Amino acid sequence: MPIIEVNGLRKVYGGRPVVDDVAFGVEEGEIFGILGPNGAGKTTAVECLAGLREPDAGTVRVAGLDPRADRDGVTRVLGVQLQESELQPKLAVREALELYSAFYPDPLDWRELAGRLGLADRLTARFGKLSGGQKQRLFIALALIGRPRIVVLDELTTGLDPRARRDTWKLIEEVRDSGVTVVLVTHFMEEAQRLCDRIAVFKQGRVTALDTPAGLVRRSAAGTVLSFAPSRPLDDEDLAGLPEATTIERRNGHLTVHGTDTTVNAVISLLARRQITAHQLRVTDATLDDAFLELTEDREN
How many CB atoms lie within 10 A of CB 68? Predict the structure, then answer.
């Protein structure tokens, strides 16, 4: 049984559905990604999941509990770091950890947690003086301090520099490896592709796709792209017979072939048979970026 079950979730503001008939399940022990453009309903969905907003329709179960009816129970199994999280600028790291520890009957040792997350030397620092990466480490600590089975991290790495972002990714992997299920809300494709076991792609309040990162990429029409300058021209008849090729373009002496790995192998075999050299050869695969753009594009424009 999934540790999180969402069925028919709907939330309306001002007569407009922000989340509309959303359904997904999260398996225990996975990093589950929620991906989508700004305004797609991602944060509203996780706020309903956390019991911070009441759905207008549908059901949400977290470890078998209703977030609204069993709020205390959900609080014990779910840790949350939301997109707009802030603390008082003058609050020290130590004070924040001690305060949040007091909210739970059996919290983690906040000193040990601070050491694990690289905050041991910042305990007396005020929140307002922390770097972006240090703030995110503190928010992860506060989300974990109650020994949750599940943690929701919403846009955790927004605004971080590349090094701080990669350090945070490592922390998220360590959280999952410790046995905690992670729900990761993000709009960074590289982040989702590296971390997530499965991804729900949101568009205009609905889930438009649910699959592994590799599965989403396989759906992309971009496929595999082979580009090169042949040492002498190739016949149209040869190119027309390439298996699984979707488009073939000629420009300024270059050939660009869109297809699959099978297409690439066929082109290489063709060049060998014709004794043609491929200059400036480049092979690129579709990425999660390609799949995301196709899944969320406005086809009416």
Answer: 14
SS3 at position 14 = coil
CB 216 within 8 A of CB 274: no
Please name the CATH architecture into which domain 223-285 falls. 2-Layer Sandwich (3.30)
- DSSP H or E segment with residue 139: helix 132-144
Domain boundaries, the chain: 4-214, 223-285
Vertex 217: Cα angle to 296 and 219 (nearest 5): 75
The CATH number given to 4-214 is: 3.40.50.300
Say which residues have a Cβ less than 8 Å from residue 31's Cβ, sequence separation at least 6: 172, 173, 176, 181, 182, 184, 195, 196, 197
Helices (H) and strands (E) in the chain, counts: 11, 13
User: Are 233 and 276 spatial neighbours (Cβ–Cβ below 8 Å)?
Assistant: no
Whole-prediction pTM? 0.80
Alpha-carbon distance values, 78 to 67, 85, 143, 221, 267 (Å): 10, 16, 8, 38, 52
pLDDT one digit per residue (tens) for the chain, 301 residues? 799 999 999 999 999 999 999 999 999 999 999 999 888 999 999 999 999 999 999 999 999 999 999 999 999 999 998 776 789 999 999 999 999 999 998 999 999 999 988 899 999 999 999 998 889 889 989 999 999 999 999 888 877 788 888 888 988 999 899 999 999 999 888 899 999 999 999 999 999 999 999 888 877 766 788 999 999 989 888 888 899 888 898 998 999 998 888 999 999 999 999 999 999 999 988 788 888 888 887 654 4
Vertex 280 angle, CA 279 and 281, to 5°? 90
Structure tokens at 14: 């001002």
